[in-house]
Amino acid sequence: MRVTVIDYKAGNLTSVLNALRYLGAETVVTNGDLVPVEDAERIVLPGVGHFQATQRLDATGLTPAIRAAIARGVPFLGICVGMQWLYTGSSEAADQPGLAHFAERCTRFSEGHEKVPHVGWNSLEVRAGSRLLSGVEPGEFVYFTHSYKAPVTADTAAITNYIEPFASAVEHGNVMGVQFHPEKSGATGLTILRNFLSCERQGIA
Amino acid sequence: MITKRIIACLDVHAGRVVKGVQFVDIIDAGDPAALAARHAREGADEIVLLDITATHEGRQTLLDTVRRTARELFVPFAVGGGIRSADDAAQVFEAGADKVSVNSAALADPMLIDAIGRSFGAQAVVVAIDARRDPSAVDPVRDAQVFVQGGRKPAGRRVVEWAREAEARGAGEILLTSMDSDGMRTGFDCELTAAVSQAVSIPVIASGGAGTVDHFVDVFGRGKADAALAASIFHFGVSSARSLKEALARAGVSVRLPC
């Protein structure tokens, strides 16, 4: 089980690498070298912090390489900002385009009497048919820390409620994303990462 | 629904836990990695490791400890103590911490908060504030003072104002310790916690004074805390974070269960 982990200097990779290695994966980290993406078996795009950091994916040429890998059917998992990058963009950095694999846009939680950011353990309402969330029971908790979120659409794999319902996971074929941190979500998170590691490459994205 | 967090805190000196959530089982009582894993297994929502020596010579030992602890710890993991620069923070992150907690170094140089937040994101920066009410002020709670050196020396800042500045500079959370309540086991300072929690939009972790399960119920309700630090669960008449959370759930507090 080899996983290519993309380092685009958006926060710390160690936790993600620890979890993947704990599950028996061999990890290859790239911060610009395209070869580990071109011959990837699986790709994980982590990321915490600001959406603007994804600019580095464009600057290094990783964006087209990842797009091509996805088109080859390579299983892809975006975590937190890595999930948001799958959409057309985020109001956090309005001029920075995302991959636009999903047509929607990420927006900030509306300010009210609830705190923004959304930090802590919240529950998942899993939609039927998700491979990534297979075996996750309704109401299981995962760890979130974010101020921006993706809208609920047909591709949403799990919904979480905070201020409003938002997409806590997205999945379409080999392309998956989670707004929460599976590497920091206890046994539930490890189940989800294990599911991802057992996803095989598909013929067509 | 977002849940209230119970955070287990381990005080570490020279690679060994010297004080922390205590257990009957003595076998792994001194090893931070084993204890942290055990707390996570027994329901803690997060682990804080506090380096109470925080000497320059002890940094490598601490980094080794963080590395060993993080390797198989799959809940959020914060490390505090002796982080004086963005480079110190970078080393701790590299070793596997998800968050760093800064206290006196941030007071001495508030730009430290900006610097760490810029490189690692706001979610990675916890600003710890040691607070005392100011009995001579018109409003002792609103005008509570920040203290350093274990609560002995006033820092010349007001708690609420410093919490706001920390948030504006990019802190992701506030860890608020009431030095008046710390070690007293008479309950958290709920008024002070609520004052800070309402002044900022980032989560506030309450610390200091817990003696019973009801004290936690109180700080999550009246105190408007988002999380609470359990320095010594053993003292609350429960045997683990899980049983503390089960008692909280019975009292109507939303917590992560089963866990």
Task: Give your account of this protein's structure.
- Chain A has 205 residues and is of the alpha/beta class.
- Chain A has a single domain (2-197), classed as Rossmann fold.
- Chain A contains six helices and twelve strands.
- In chain A, the strands form three sheets. An eight-stranded mixed sheet of chain A has the order 2-1-3-4-12-11-10-7. In chain A, strands 5-9 form a two-stranded antiparallel sheet. Chain A has a two-stranded antiparallel ribbon with strand order 6-8.
- In chain A, a hairpin with a 1-residue loop joins β10 (156-162) and β11.
- The longest helix of chain A has 12 residues, at 186-197.
- Chain A starts with a strand and ends in an 8-residue tail after the last helix.
- The model of chain B is unreliable at 22-28 (pLDDT under 50).
- By secondary structure, chain B is an alpha/beta fold.
- Chain B has a single domain (5-250), classed as Aldolase class I (TIM Barrel, Alpha-Beta Barrel).
- Chain B contains nine helices and eleven strands.
- Chain B has an eight-stranded parallel beta barrel with strand order 1-3-4-5-6-9-10-11, surrounded by seven helices.
- Classes of the chains: A alpha/beta (205), B alpha/beta (259).
- Chain A binds chain B through residues 10-12, 14-15, 18-19, 22, 48-50, 111, 115-123, 141, 143, 145-146, 161-162, 181, 183-187, 189-190, and chain B through 1-5, 40, 45, 70-72, 74-77, 93-98, 120-124, 172-173, 201-203, 226-227, 256, 259.
Describe this protein with a few key phrases.
heterodimer, A: 205 residues, alpha/beta, Rossmann fold, eight-stranded mixed β-sheet, two-stranded antiparallel ribbon, 12 strands, 21% helix, globular, B: 259 residues, TIM Barrel, eight-stranded parallel barrel, 23% strand
